[in-house]
Amino acid sequence: MTRISHIVFDIGNVLLRWDPELIYLDRIPDPQERRWFLQEVCSPQWNIERDLGNSFADGEAELITHHPGHADNIRAYFAEWHKSVPHAVDGVPQLMADFIRAGRDVTMLTNFSAETFPVAVGKYPFLHEPRGVTVSGEVGVIKPDPEIYRLHETRFALEGAETLFIDDSAANIEAARQHGWHGIVFTSADQLKQELAVFGLG
Q1: pLDDT at 2 (0 to 100)
Q2: Dihedral, 10, 12, 15, 16 alpha carbons, nearest 10
Q3: Mean pLDDT throughout 95-122?
Q4: Which helix (H) or strand (E) holds 9?
Q5: Between 189-198 and 92-101, two packed helices, what is the crossing angle to 10 degrees?
Q6: Coil, helix or strand for 14?
Q7: Dist CA 155 CA 147 (whole Å)
Q8: Tens digits of residue pLDDT in 30-67
Q9: pLDDT at site 201
Q10: Which run of H or of E encompasses 76?
Q11: Strands 163-167 and 133-135
Q12: Quick check: 148 and 136 in contact, CB under 8 A?
């Protein structure tokens, strides 16, 4: 059986439910208008730029220049970001806590803005429990760029062949496998438990 010495968790939609649409349910009641705003204004690419370390202040200013009529909603993305993480993913923080209590080495590797990550930790203190975390917005590189896996491995002295990564993105898991790690594409706590058992971590 494969020896696993290090378990690495993603955060968004693995440990915490994340959905930026939740910020705008009241602000933009019409579903089509809300989807347009999150595709064309505060878009996925714009969010990726925050995950790369670009500031919300600069991002807001740029968007407001092009979409001045949406200024309040643009500013709300950061100001009300806490609404986008309404709860922990059922069962997964408990799994992580069980690993830590059992003496297993646990870290986190996440695509996250350096400005919103402290908000998440303040709302969910269990994010303090692992040995450490690599936050993309703090290091300026995001998954699935191979560099972030090299960086995390070096920072936490991981043995790649003994490292298991849990992420909800198949692309991120494939990149981890290309780097020499093992990986599980997360869909639910029950599915995760089943796949962990394959690695002797049931």
Answers
A1: 82
A2: 170
A3: 98
A4: strand 6-9
A5: 40
A6: coil
A7: 12
A8: 999 999 999 999 999 999 999 999 999 999 999 999 99
A9: 94
A10: helix 71-79
A11: unpaired
A12: yes
Q: Which amino acid is at 141?
A: V
Q: Tell me, what DSSP letter sits at residue 7?
A: E
| Alpha-carbon span 172 to 44, nearest angstrom | 16
How many Å separate Cα 158 from the centre of its chain?
20
Alpha carbon 33 to chain centroid distance? 26
d(CA 90, CA 17): 9
**Helix H or strand E encompassing 195:** helix 189-198
Whose tokens are 């939740």? That residue is 22
Q: What percent of the chain has pLDDT over 70?
A: 100
| pLDDT classification of 198: cutoffs 50, 70, 90 | very high
**C-beta separation of 192 from 9 below 8 A:** no
User: What pLDDT was estimated at residue 192?
Assistant: 98
pTM of the model: 0.96
Evaluate whether 59 touches 91 at the Cβ level (below 8 Å): no
Q: Give me the chain's average pLDDT, please.
A: 97
For residues 177 and 58, give the distance between their C-alpha atoms in angstroms, rounded to a whole number.
35
pLDDT beyond 70 at 1: no
For residue 20, the Cα-to-chain-centroid distance in whole angstroms is 13
What are the E-state strand segments in 100-197?
Answer: 105-110, 133-135, 163-167, 182-185
